Amino acid sequence: MLKTILTRMSRLFSVPGDNPDLLKAQFEVFSSQVPLMYSIVLINAWALALNFMDVAPAWISLHLPAGFTLVCGLRLMGWWRARHIVPTAAAARQALTQTNLFALLLTTTLTAWALALYPYGDAQMQANIAFFIGISGLGVIICLQQLPSAALIAAVVINVIFVMYFSLAGVAAFAGMAVNLLLVSVALLLVVSVQFRHFSGAVSARRKLEAVSRENFRLANLDSLTGLPNRRQFFSHLDETFAAANGRRLAVGIIDLDGFKPVNDLYGHKVGDGLLVEVGRRLSALMHANVHIARLGGDEFALTVADCPEDADLLTFGERICTALRKPFVLPEATVQLSGSIGFAVFPELADSAQELYERADYALYQGKRSNRGHAVLFSGSHVVEIEQEKRIEQALSHADLDREIVVFFQPIVDIQNGRTVAFEALARWTSPVLGPVPPGQFIPVAERIGLIGQLTRVLLRKALATAADWPEDVVLSFNLSTHDVSSSDGAVAIVGIILASGIDPKRLDFEITETAMMYDFVQAKAAIDMLKALGCGIALDDFGTGYSSLSQLHALPLTKIKIDRSFVTDLDKNPASFKIVKSLLALSSDMGLRCVTEGVETEEELATLRKLGGQFVQGYLLSRPIAEDQVAGFLQSAAAEAAGNGHRASA
Ligand code: C2E
Ligand code: CA
Ligand code: CA
Q: Which of 164, 358, 460, 594 has the lowest tally of Cβ within 10 angstroms?
């Protein structure tokens, strides 16, 4: 019993060490109040000392206050020096415990000193002493409110000495003051304890708030699906690493999955998500200290390589990533196989800002996906040449006489079940007087970028329709539209105008659009496409499998046909992944009641495989390259002759 009381008592007079945050906060607030406390004490002490200067010996009215001033000044200096230091909890506790001790010493000595002056003064001066002790004591308690143990120590010391001394002094007025001081001290201690409870509550609330905002910051920089850093984190990390690179080699790599979208469309988002999580895992497994990986969004990932190795080693690292991504993904719902391409750019050789590093890695990726899918590509000097070529194309195109310089070629689309040519796809050909022949894969993107595509499309469509007017009634013209043609209502209206003016039955016209065209502004693109469909034209989804839109979005379109992208047809007979994808896409189109054209058939083996899979409509160099308008009639004639002679490979 006595023991518990004693422990409780000792706890009241000591600094608890169980809450490190509270200790630090106490230290911080208290250190800012120390000057105030010492000022109160010293000013009051000197005021009292002056009062007694003439009557009391110098050692008590001058030397002792000077001593206090020195000691307090030293303490104050110590606190002042520590004001910007964030102490550890242990150091804070030690300092606060010392303060407890110092509070005991200071209040004892000061009170004793003040009472030592008592015999030298008259009644008024003695009252001044009582006043000094009371006021200074209360001031000290208030200043110590963030350290209740020290406040309690000060209160006990002052009151005990004061009450004892003045009760013995036998002056009724002083005894009254003693009781008064005692009561006020108790009240003040209660206020201090309530205040302190609020204070510690505020400290723990602040700690929780900090924890929450740290967690929010972490989440805001994290991709919720894969747990990898997200796009925002990637770019801020890139900026930081770039700033710290200091001339040392730094690489940015951008990874894009090939064939992710069809998987997502065919098997659903759940499988797609599972796949991305696994991709994230495989990528993380290949990372090391200098490599930072993030998911930029969709099926796009990016990485930075600090202190980047030689180009050859970087590419080897990139190929390791591609190899990891080529391994089959065994998911609960399905086993899927795809590939990933990666584009790299390296600072300082071929990029001199973080932005340029990213853009050039992206450019390398884009080029890689076109020519070397599933592998690592490094942005190189030849890419710089290409970019310059694009600039030249831009120059030449913006000054071109489109009507004269641009012509249309036609590539047949054949029904391999009966050998009949069902359509021709119109393909733009440009011979610039400055640059010579420029392939459409180069000048169409430039025309889109510089806002010339609308005009170009109108010229091409007029020419193509004029040619198609001479074809047999059952041969369709398939015409490519670009993003910009369908993303403005003006563009669509102009197209309708040209069709109507041509006099050709809109049923003989198919428009090919890509998924990327739909991505730009789906609602506007759908409105434009609905308008063309309402006119009677067919709508084909071009380059199927390479875009980004989801199958649900495609469902919303009035499609009549899909065109399987050439990339899935190359090596169809040898590559099991392509085989599976083409097979699924053929099944999908038949389920959706859509015709399906397979593009880019170049070899007999590919054709045979396609025939085995039940493919019907085929386009590709094997059957014919794109031909000039005056060759179309000849092509149709010889094809008809071949079919009639039963010699055509289509019926073989
Ligand atoms: P696309 O719409 O996918 O057109 C098919 C491309 O594949 C054509 O390239 C064609 O020549 C080529 N091709 C056809 N069969 C084979 C084959 O067996 N093997 C290989 N390697 N290639 C084959 P082209 O004419 O160079 O056109 C490239 C792209 O330029 C087109 O791709 C299309 O996106 C765009 N383009 C062409 N003409 C026009 C046009 O009039 N308007 C618009 N907006 N874009 C056009
Ligand atoms: Ca096309
Ligand atoms: Ca195509």
A: 164
Q: Work out the pLDDT band at 82, boundaries 50, 70, 90.
A: confident
Q: How high is the pLDDT of residue 651?
A: 41
User: To test the ligand 1 pocket, which listed residue (409, 427, 446) has its Cβ within 8 A of the most ligand atoms?
Assistant: 427
Answer yes or no: do 419 and 365 share one domain. Answer: no
What is the mean pLDDT of the segment spanning 156-179?
A: 85
Q: Could you tell which of 457, 480, 623 is best to mutate to test the pocket of ligand 1, judged by most ligand atoms within 8 Å of the CB?
A: 480
Between strands 329-330 and 335-336, the pairing is antiparallel
The total number of structural domains in the chain stands at 3
Domain that holds residue 239: 231-379
Residue 520's pLDDT band (boundaries 50, 70, 90)?
Answer: low
650: pLDDT strictly greater than 50? no
User: Ligand 1, atom 15: nearest CA belongs to which residue?
Assistant: 620
Q: Are residues 206 and 241 in the same domain?
A: no
Residue 172 or 255, more confident: 255
Q: Whose CA is nearest to atom 11 of ligand 1?
A: 626
CATH number at residue 648: 3.20.20.450
Confidence of residue 553 (pLDDT cuts 50, 70, 90): low
Atom of ligand 1 nearest to the CA of 482: 44
Residues 333/270, Cβ–Cβ less than 8 Å: yes
Residues contacting ligand 1 via CB (< 6 Å):
411, 426-428, 439-441, 444, 460, 480-482, 512, 542-543, 566, 600-602, 619-621, 626
More confident residue, 256 or 549: 256
Task: Report if residue 544 sits inside a domain.
Answer: no
- Measure the CA–CA gap between 319 and 304, rounded to whole angstroms: 16
| Residue 536 domain-assigned (yes or no) | no
Is 516 a member of any domain?
A: no
R_g over Cα of the chain: 43
- Is the bond into 348 cis (omega within 30 degrees of 0)? yes
Minimum-distance ligand 1 atom for the alpha carbon of 602? 18
